[in-house]
Design brief:
TIM Barrel, 8 strands, 14% strand
């Protein structure tokens, strides 16, 4: 069952405790907490002290998304604030591998995130170390942006990596997620849907959360079973990944992603309502 993590960035900041209880009672799986430092992204939100202050209002898992530079400096603070999972960006300055190790050492689950313009291959060195990969489908910094459908192949790429490597990996998507784009993402392999305005604008978000949980395959990550048990690795070959020619493996991997990209882009565009729901990359790159 797909997990749903409402983003507190779209909550009423004057009553964060009430908003946290609201998403908990609506059946949300996690509370997504967007932390911005004004340096990695052109916005400032909140930090560990605010998270610590609202921790007492609910025992829902806290999913902290650190859009900050040199995140290793603050891992202890977020652990002390009561976070359960902390995600850092592969593009951030500083020791990212060290930050992931520190997150794990503090007893939390670790995640790695990638921005729209960054090739998804930048995640590869971190994927064996983390519990979650977060695919950004908007430019980080502000809520309410349009979904960038060109990022869908990144979801499939990470999904295939997880299958090929037998990894118990959550795949989260953040940005422009609604009832249409969320289904497209889940079909591409996402196991966690992060959404802000699409949920918080609703008087009662419980029906939407129940519906979204039915999207996509049952990843089974929460109970420790292998994700995507019904799927096979792309280009499945006897003997597994050992001894393969890396170049041959990459070509076989890229072809289905390209085809899926075209189909998913059409599906997202056909299902979305209103202009501006699908946005292009600011600086499109040839790599997924």
């Amino acid at each position: 069952m797909t997990k749903v993590a409402p983003s507190m960035l779209s909550a009423d900041f004057s009553r964060l405790g009430d908003e946290l209880r609201r998403i908990d009672s609506a059946g949300a799986d996690w509370a997504h907490l967007d932390v911005m430092d004004g340096m990695f992204v052109p916005n400032i939100t909140f930090g560990a002290p605010v998270i610590k202050a609202i921790r007492k209002h609910s025992d829902i898992p806290f999913d902290a998304h650190l859009m900050i530079q040199d995140p290793i400096r603050y891992i202890k603070d977020f652990a002390d604030a009561g976070c359960d999972l902390v995600t850092v960006h592969c593009e951030a300055v500083g020791d990212i591998r060290g930050a992931i190790q520190e997150i794990k050492a503090r007893g939390m689950r670790a995640g790695i995130s990638v921005n729209p313009e960054t090739p998804v291959t930048e995640l590869e060195e971190y994927l064996p170390l983390v519990d979650l990969a977060l695919i950004m489908t908007v430019h980080p910094g502000f809520g309410g942006q349009s979904f960038i459908a060109e990022c869908i192949p990144k979801i499939s790429y990470v999904r295939d990596w997880a299958v090929e490597n037998g990894a118990d990996l959550e795949i989260s998507v953040d940005g422009g997620v609604n009832e249409f784009t969320g289904k497209v993402c889940a079909d591409a392999g996402a196991t966690v849907l992060v959404a802000g305005s699409a949920l918080f604008k609703l008087e009662d978000m419980a029906p939407a959360i129940r519906e979204w949980k039915t999207f996509g395959p049952d990843a089974g990550c929460r109970d420790g079973s292998k994700p995507f048990p019904h799927m096979h690795a792309v280009g499945d070959r006897p003997g597994g990944p050992e001894g393969e020619d890396p170049g041959r493996r990459r070509v076989q991997h890229d072809l289905p992603v390209s085809v899926h990209h075209q189909a998913a882009r059409r599906q997202a565009a056909d299902g979305l309502r209103g202009e501006g729901d699908v946005a292009p990359l600011r600086n499109p790159v040839p790599h997924i």
